[in-house]
Specification:
351 residues; single chain; alpha+beta; 2 domains; Chitinase A, domain 3; 8 helices; 26% helix
Length: 351
């Protein structure tokens, strides 16, 4: 919860911050490290004045080090696609990040940007994508971000800054409220999604079956093999698309035409895949229609899968294997480590 990287990974979708509609052509100020910014200090209900900071940063930040900042945030690509919106994707609850001394290596990153803000401030920050991913996320720039352009914009509204104990108490209370809201939302959304899926199947003359979890599936070519059992490794060729408009967001073709391997029933993929693929005998081809609550829910997945998106997957269950035995001492061999890393990477990209 208390991680600056979580600001993007939450994901890594409008109107989170009123500044999103500000004049985008207005001039940005710039820190010596290269962060472009527009910061506004609250002067009353709905009133803000432009705020500048010295080249040495905010002199009052030292008094906030060690505390926790609660803020609402929205990320956009250079093409203005929304990556993450905390108000929408966190049920209206803020993101929380720890405030620490900004090291030299973090200049130009999220840590420095956050250090410029006080409670009540609103801001727009524009970062160079190569810099932000190197300094704050310590990973290469994702291809879709590079294709969108050289910058990433962050809109921020700071709610409050709290001592850690007070923030932890708020987080615990928030988690209970958030879980209740998410459960209620998922239940209502599942009803809407189910009606949409039935209409889609009827319109497209699909003969589908419904799994107890709520996934619809159809086997168009039955394979001769058995169905996979929990814990077995399945290899799947796939094409994932949005039910709403048919846009393909991921596929085996995009991944070099290689099957995606995962241990079924172990939570390594979205619930809709665990439930749906389990219905396919080895060698079968068909499709999965997955309601949003069994896919990426209200959070969505990056820029390509919006919140509450119903997904269609055209799949082929290529192979089923027993999971490799764990080496003595509980350590994984190199092949297993590589397989799990690849599975996590592929899961983040859309399975």
């Amino acid at each position: 919860m208390f991680s600056t990287r979580n600001l993007l990974s939450l994901a890594l979708a409008a109107g989170v911050v009123s500044l999103a509609s500000c004049n985008k052509n207005a001039d940005f100020s710039k820190t010596p490290s290269g962060i472009e910014y527009k910061i506004y200090k609250s002067t009353g209900p709905g009133k803000y004045d432009a705020k500048d900071v010295s080249k040495d940063g905010d002199a009052t930040y030292k008094d906030r080090i060690g505390k926790i900042m609660a803020l609402h945030v929205e990320y956009r690509t250079a093409k203005d696609s929304i990556l993450f919106n905390s108000r929408k994707q966190q049920m209206g609850f803020p993101v929380r990040v720890p405030l620490d001394t900004v090291r030299k290596a973090q200049r130009g990153g999220l840590e420095e940007a956050i250090s410029l803000l006080e409670p009540g401030d609103s801001a727009v920050f524009r970062f160079n994508v190569d810099t932000i991913f190197a300094k704050s996320f310590r990973q290469p720039v994702p291809p879709f971000m590079s294709k969108a352009g050289k910058t990433m914009t962050m809109y921020v509204k700071v709610d409050k800054v709290q001592p850690q104990a007070e923030a932890m108490a708020d987080v615990q209370k928030m988690q209970v409220e958030q879980q209740a809201k998410m459960a209620a939302h998922a239940e209502e959304q599942l009803k809407k999604d189910d009606a949409t899926l039935q209409e889609y199947a009827k319109k497209n003359n699909l003969t589908v079956k419904k799994d107890p979890s709520g996934v619809y599936y159809a086997i168009t070519t039955a394979g001769p093999g058995p169905k996979p059992k929990a814990g077995q490794i399945v290899s799947v060729l796939y094409k994932g698309s949005l039910l709403e408009n048919g846009k393909v967001f991921d596929s085996s073709e995009k991944q070099g035409n290689k099957p995606f391997d995962f241990a079924i029933g172990q939570g390594q993929v979205i619930p809709g895949w665990d439930a749906g693929i389990a219905q396919f005998p080895k060698g079968s081809k068909g499709l999965l229609l997955i309601p949003s609550s069994l896919a990426y829910g209200q959070r969505g997945a990056g820029a390509d899968v919006p919140a509450d998106a119903i997904l269609r997957f055209d799949v082929e269950l290529v192979d089923i294997k027993n999971a490799p035995a764990q080496p003595a001492g509980g350590q994984m061999d190199e092949a297993e480590i590589r397989r799990q890393i690849e599975a996590m990477q592929r899961q983040q990209q859309g399975k």
